[in-house]
Give the backbone structure.
Amino acid sequence: MGGYLLNSLLVASAITVLSLSFNLMAGYAFAKLRFAGRERLFQLLIGALVIPAQVAMLPLFLLLKYLGLVNSYAGVVVPGMATVFGIFLVRQYARGIPDELMEAARIDGAGEWRIFLQIVMPLLKPIMVTLAIFTFLAAWNDFMWPLIVLTGQEHYTLPIGLASLAREHSQDSELMMAGSVVTVLPVLVLFLAMQRYYLEGLLCAPCDLATHMPLHPVDGEWLGLLAEPPRRLVLVPASAPFPVARADEGAPGKRPASAHPV
């Protein structure tokens, strides 16, 4: 049972990390980057949501067999590296980020990777946690695909291991009950630990900058958005009072005289 638990942790963690990375980059690209065929390609991805997952299982299995990934962890992880739902979720959330914020960073000399890592990703933190929980839950509880791909018992994940305990004429009920508790416990701990960010990602308006500042320092100053009209991007000295609303504060602060527009 301990081996099954480690296998599940390995597979679910790998799928979560890889899926989060690819979904964030793809969702941001569809939301904020301009390239030919962007809207048409996104429409094709959304159309793929109506195709049942079971339809793609046989072609996907044959492809993995051709690549030699059957009965390996990679065969379970690779199909979950990116999902249409994840890309859609990130794209809808990222659309709420003001374009002026990224334009100001480009004028300041920041490259696209720096903008994505230091400006966009902190703003996407609530949806990142929400997507990570969804992905980890789906990978942790997945039974059908690992059952198809994994043929060796040493690679079994926890759901398959629990199912293998039930035999035709006998079953270890005590061990199955203990395994069920072990299956639920990590997911419950993860949800309770990330509950604040999870609810924020589901309920808050996409990237309301009045609740997601400060963003990132620029030459000893903070790049921020005025909480009072006119709402403009400003550079505020680190020693000055913040002119933006903070997630841990109440009403927005006053605009300091030292703030100057970007």
